Amino acid sequence: MAEPPAPNRLRPPEGLWRRRVASFGHAFRGVWAALRSEVHLRFHAFATVVVVGLGFYYGISRLEWALVAISVACVWSAELMNTAIEALTDLASPEYHVLAGKAKDVAAAAVLLAALGALVVGGLVFIPRLLGS
Ligand SMILES: Nc1ncnc2c1ncn2[C@@H]1O[C@H](COP(=O)(O)OP(=O)(O)OP(=O)(O)O)[C@@H](O)[C@H]1O
Question: 114: number of CA atoms within 13 Å, CB side?
Fold first, then answer.
């Protein structure tokens, strides 16, 4: 008799809520996988902890928290997208190709831009407080 088909781990379980919960699981697995492989992301995690700690220490305003949260989310999102693009590029073009290089360079540029924006926000919010003014 034929073996029953192996369960397809890629197919989400039946039911809307179970599918949503499964999607969250995939997303957290992605964050975890990226954290394990990317030194830059671990640095962002460290910076996030420092910035949140400083935010509580100095009692920054709601608007400042909003700016800090958007900045942190932008940097994390850009770095995660960069990691995904790097992985896909390595899969599609393990050999040298000018378009593979362009894809990686442009993805890295997105991270740089997000990080510069976060640096400006962090500077405006925290430098006056760190200088005591
Ligand atoms: N297959 C390729 N073809 C052409 N150029 C590539 C290729 N792979 C990488 N490069 C070039 O080398 C640079 C560094 O690529 P690499 O994969 O080492 O990423 P990285 O910036 O070191 O990322 P990370 O440090 O986050 O792992 C790319 O930005 C690109 O310019």
Answer: 22
CA of 101 to the centre of ligand 1 (A): 6
Q: What is the pLDDT of residues 47-77, one digit of tens each?
A: 999 999 999 999 999 999 999 999 999 999 9
Number of domains observed in the structure of the chain: 1
The protein residue with its alpha carbon nearest to ligand 1, atom 8, reads 101
Tokens of residue 98, six digits: 């000018």
Give me the CATH number covering residue 102: 1.10.287.3610
**Separation of first and last alpha carbons in the chain:** 80
ipTM above 0.95, yes or no: no
Cα 108 to Cα 57, 98, 101, 128: the distances in Å are 32, 15, 11, 30
**Contact (CB, 8 A) for 17 and 11:** no
Ligand 1, atom 30, residue with closest C-alpha: 101
pTM metric for this prediction? 0.84
**Is residue 125, in this structure, part of any structural domain at all?**
yes
Domain range holding 125? 39-130
